Amino acid sequence: MPQTLKTLGPKAAADLDGDLMSDAGGFSIDQLMELAGLSVSQAVYNVHPPSAGNNGGDGLVAARHLYFYGYTPVVYYPKPTKKPIYDGLVKQLNNLHIRFDNETPFDKLAGESDLIVDALFGFSFQPPVREPFDQAIAVMEKGVKPVLAVDTPSSWHVEDGPQNEGLGSKYMPDYLISLTAAKPNVGHFKGKKHFIGGRFLGEDVAKKYNLNIPEYKGLDQIVEVPVDVKVEKL
Amino acid sequence: MPQTLKTLGPKAAADLDGDLMSDAGGFSIDQLMELAGLSVSQAVYNVHPPSAGNNGGDGLVAARHLYFYGYTPVVYYPKPTKKPIYDGLVKQLNNLHIRFDNETPFDKLAGESDLIVDALFGFSFQPPVREPFDQAIAVMEKGVKPVLAVDTPSSWHVEDGPQNEGLGSKYMPDYLISLTAAKPNVGHFKGKKHFIGGRFLGEDVAKKYNLNIPEYKGLDQIVEVPVDVKVEKL
């Protein structure tokens, strides 16, 4: 691994996604989500070998892969995104009879689970946390069950990390997976394990964004990086 | 693994793909190709730990993953499919500076490679083999280098296997990866290893097509099945 963990701010991260999905980059949103969700599922498998989940598109893909790894994921998805790709992901899960549950109080759901995958909000989140997500943030903040946060812990500011006060200000997930590149708030992450996923980023793109490509091993779609690595904001 | 390897004929295989991509199945072609190519790349890694490749869409995805595993794939793609998803896959490879070579004689290309991934034709192939593919089939038939065939060895009939006479009649790849489900011609496969990829097929679909779902291990997207397994044509 590089000595220094370079992070991408919101503009650069959005630009990079735009490059990948541009006419020149050639990736479709379907492909990128499939790859991201696969990385998330591998991170879950790493921190919690088979026996719960929540989120956005990456999380829905991860839930599918996790099902096939032998997990029994439960999906909390109270505000479905209205786009064909999301509809498709939901159908894929329905066809596997994977349980969606937006009715059971989140603390009860969490109590029945072994691990929570937090893919509620990404790095472009703007406060405040609205209902019904406040309930979920409060439960994750309590730390009742270990949480793997996807890309950015939900409710965190992309640069400044946890909110200064109130709901979410003490939210610290146990595990984090950064997708494509770490975001600047990773400097606030004091959990147990940090992974990076994005084994499709070429040297040209890495150079353009001044990123280091981590050294993935074997067939892995994720790589673990030290939690105490020095962070460089780009 | 199941005692008997059930295989899907061309109609059922096409119907299954149609189901997966139907409004009810929810998968996009982008997702299925991503998953298929990932399986292919894992099969390559299995039979030939890092140090070459050829094909269609699944093969293009596999070439990308293989690059990231540390391989130096060379892509033979003389008749590009004119569809946006294929254009995107090619751009992804171009951005990684992966070599496309349709000019070098195929026997020379093969001579410089350690393994050939055959993803030229699928199970819907209809003879005869046209130029310039005849050259490639002839080289693979000679067995100069080991070949991993994707889903159906190119030029084989979906039921009857190798052509009765002439070009391709003696073509027997060393390795085969069946995608989603084995095709009936697998009964003619006498190579060293047979893999199945398709860890996204649910029990409902498997039941509808009367398939057994193989027992994948850990994070694997492929499973190896005995070459001498009894074959049941569905």
Automatic annotation (TrEMBL), chains A, B:
Record keywords, A-Z: Isomerase, Metal-binding, NAD, NADP, Nucleotide-binding, Potassium
InterPro entries hit by this protein: YjeF_N_dom, YjeF_N_dom_sf, YJEFN_prot_NAXE-like
Broad EC category: isomerase
E.C. no: 5.1.99.6
NCBIfam families from the UniProt entry: yjeF_nterm (TIGR00197)
Superkingdom, natural source: Eukaryota
Domain YjeF N-terminal: 13-213
Catalysed reactions, semicolon-separated: (6R)-NADPHX = (6S)-NADPHX; (6R)-NADHX = (6S)-NADHX
GO molecular function, one term: nucleotide binding
Signal peptide: none
A GO CC term assigned to this protein in UniProt: mitochondrion
Bilayer-crossing regions: none
Protein's name in the database: NAD(P)H-hydrate epimerase
